[in-house]
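Lab channel / #folding
Pinned by the channel admin:
"Please post every new chain as: sequence first, then the structure tokens as a reply. Keep commentary short and put observations after the output so the thread stays searchable."

First post following the new format, from NK:
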Amino acid sequence: MSQDSHKGYLDAHIHVWEFAIFNGFTSLEKCLNLEELVETLKSHLVEGWAVGVRFNQERLVEKIIPGRAFLDHAFGSTPVVIVRTCLHLAAANAAAMERLGLFAEDGLFYEDKVFKLLNTLITSLNLEPGEVLSRGLKELKQLGIVKAIDMGMDRHKRPFFEGLDQGVEVDFYTVDFDLLDEALGFKFFLDGGLGARTAALTKEYADAPGNYGILNYTDEDFLSLVDKVHRKGKPIAAHAIGDRAVDQFLRVVRQSRHPLDRLEHVQYAREEQLDSLAELEIPVCIQPIFSREISWAVHRLGPERMKTAYAWGLMKDKGIRLLAGSDAPVEGHDPREAAVTVASLKDGHHLDFEEVLELFARANWEFYNG
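Reply from TO:
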């Protein structure tokens, strides 16, 4: 089945506002070393700021994240902000932090602080949110994406979406309980990401002994919040990239459940966890384009854990209901690009080209339209 089976693609997991923001700043994804990164930023200033997005230290020869000391030396009084492609980490120099009123000793910001930094940056640059969003939605429409489900709406961003009509319908999950009544459901971030080594693992990172990542909630706190959402008749969508976060999700949904509860990402899960997800009929929203991370994720997880990492085909074979999203701007937003990426893989990582497009063109629509 192809895109023609519906009026277009539905991206079931995207950060629309952040995607639109990223389109207006300098991409660092092709930089191969720190010198090239600095030169790229200095040649593309925005209102006197050096702002770089889609940064991934794994592509650099140096394999390091430039912190405050490096950025202060390289940019001096020019404010600079760099956002890692995963959206779980950002770096800033002293000049940028002073102007933004946000501070970190080493210049590194993690998790929810990244989103606060981005929103403050837009205000500082006097960018008009409606224009930023309109350009982003037009780009989605050009790829045949006619519906986008935003996975992080809050009170700050919500007014930006009022009255916009670029041929792309936007529904959302919220991270703000005040918006829950009009949202599809509530979004929880159970852990971080593999790139920043904040995804929660049961065994330590292969390339960072002693580091097990971060769980953002205790089981008790998570269950209390999930119950609060379910009592409103709404489902949850839970970001879980590492297997320790998947464990926590499974423990909690066994105690409190809505039929439309979703699990997001699942870049690494143990095989028995996949069996449990299938048995409990938990839909998993995957990001096939994330398979491009495999070349460096093996250093984080080691070869043994990689057998059930990015295992979209294995999930399908076990009977897990799959949905699909891009998680843009974390990765590319073209469903066809995602399909090509996964079709080239083998064994449990593989899905056919048409299978991936069916997720965007059929499975996502069926989940939300019955």
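NK: The chain is about 35% helix and 15% strand.
TO: also worth noting, The chain has two domains: 3-16+129-369, 19-124.
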